[in-house]
Amino acid sequence: MDRYLKNILVVSFGFLLLFTAFGGLQSLQSSLNADEGLGVASLSIIYGALIISSMFIPPIMIKKLGCKWTIVISMCCYITYSLGNFYPSWYTLIPTSVILGFGGAPLWAAKCTYLTESGNRYAEKVGKVGKDIVNQYFGLFFLIFQSSGVWGNLISSLIFGQTPDAGYNAGESNYTHCGANDCPYVNVSYVNSTSSKRPSESLIYTLLGIYTGSGILAVLLVSIFLDNIDLKKEPKKEDIKNETFWIKILATLRHLRDKRQCLLIPLTMWSGFEQGFLAGDYTKSYVTCTLGIHFVGYVMICFAATNAICSLLFGKLSQYTGRISLFFFAAFTNAASIIALLLWKPHPNQLAVFFVFPAIWGMADSIWQTQTNALYGVLFDDHKEAAFANYRLWESLGFVIAYGYSTFLCVSVKLYIILFVLVLGMALYTLVEYNENKKLPNNKLEKDTGEDDSLYKTMQTKM
Q1: What is the distance between the alpha carbons of residues 316 and 311, in angstroms, rounded to a whole number?
Q2: How much is the pLDDT for 28?
Q3: pLDDT tens digit string along 185-238?
Q4: What is the pLDDT of residues 171-189, one digit of tens each?
Q5: pLDDT value for 56
Q6: What is the CATH number of the domain that holds 263?
């Protein structure tokens, strides 16, 4: 096997093992560690630390350690979070959340650098175009990596499904406080005791042991089989100046002087809000409250699978429809889902409906992820680094806020909040497109091909 291809496969399967564990744990936090909102608080801390980490840590670690060992050490940061879940408390989960958040940014930055450098070197070796090889490597990586959302959630559902009396009793009528009516101050005696029952400690430890072992296997795989790439080059003085951390931060802030960037902030934050709601509130207040925690994995598998399929579909479709129609389709889909979630009274007899919502949500999310990234690439072609740094900042802030207020507000209030953010985001986005349309000759709306999405999508912490 070609050495370059072998390295790409090692990185890809390393990430698959690592995020099989983290993805499964992330989906379970609001249900598994619901006391005092510890689980969602830890997720909020992760994305808060990620914001800070992305601005300072990646260049330092990659320069000092190289890509391979940056990946290895960052993976170890993820393992600490799995270990913290063995004895969940404010003294274990919060510190490990900070550690994971600080490891997240260098992990993805090092992976992107490694794949890009490997692709360019192989292209130079065989006399091909570097960009083409790099795109092939990223495509192979995501083909393998995206399945982690399926495996992690499948493992959790199979294990928690072994809970005695894991099934639900459709004859019970105490589901009144599930769904939009779920509030933090509701007396727990009203909540269905069978569905909301916490799995036994032995099953939880079994799951966490599998997740931790998966993370350790990822570290061993990369440590043993991944070749290091020497990135040491004699940089020009102007390059050193341009890579000064404070200058990068100032460039990110200076980019806010662009009115288009300011107008896109609510839409960018919406991406964090909507993902945070599904992972933090839908799984707990609709699925766990009504069906039980062992159904969370199956529901999130439906979301991940639909998201992956539709990402490919809408990425191709955008060439014919343009981004504007896709944005409005996603907004309409999400708005209709939010209204339906406000009105729906979840009950175990409606089992299929619990999977319909994440499937629709995944379809809309695929549009938000692909088209918003591509939109930034098209609008800010001359300042991509600063623009995508802002994207990372505002989307992460959306996650932080969504997870931060999760334990203080009723689900109905959260639904009204995300509906407001969606409407505001789309209104301001429409203004951006209107202004861009006036700049184009013959007032023809620009259609987006989505070419800038593939590389930047790898920097998402849809961790």
Answers
A1: 9
A2: 84
A3: 664 444 444 445 677 888 999 999 999 999 999 999 999 999 988 765 544 444
A4: 455 678 898 888 886 644 4
A5: 75
A6: 1.20.1250.20
- Buried b / exposed e along 71-92 (16+ C-beta atoms within 10 A): bbbbbebbbbbbebbeebeeeb
Between CA 214 and CA 331 the distance in angstroms is 37
pTM, two decimal places: 0.76
* Domain match, 19 and 144 both: yes
Q: What is the sign of the dihedral through the CA atoms of 54, 279, 96 and 226?
A: negative
Residues 271 and 149 both lie in one domain: no
Total domains in the chain come to 2
Amino acid sitting at position 118: S
Find the domain containing 42 and state its range. 1-163+199-228
Write out pLDDT tens, residues 33-51.
877 778 888 988 998 898 8
User: Which distant-in-sequence residues (6+ apart) come within 8 Å of 157 by Cβ?
Assistant: 294, 295, 296, 297, 298, 301
Is 145 within a domain?
Answer: yes
Residue 321: φ, ψ to 5°: -95, -25
Q: Are residues 359 and 438 in the same domain?
A: yes
> Same structural domain for residues 207 and 244?
no
What mean pLDDT do residues 19-28 have?
88
Per-residue pLDDT tens over the stretch 289-323? 888 888 888 998 899 888 888 877 887 787 788 88
And the tokens for 325?
């129609």
CA angle 303/307/312 to nearest 5° reads 160
pLDDT digits (tens, 9 = 90+) for 388-431: 778 878 888 898 898 888 788 899 999 999 999 999 999 999 99
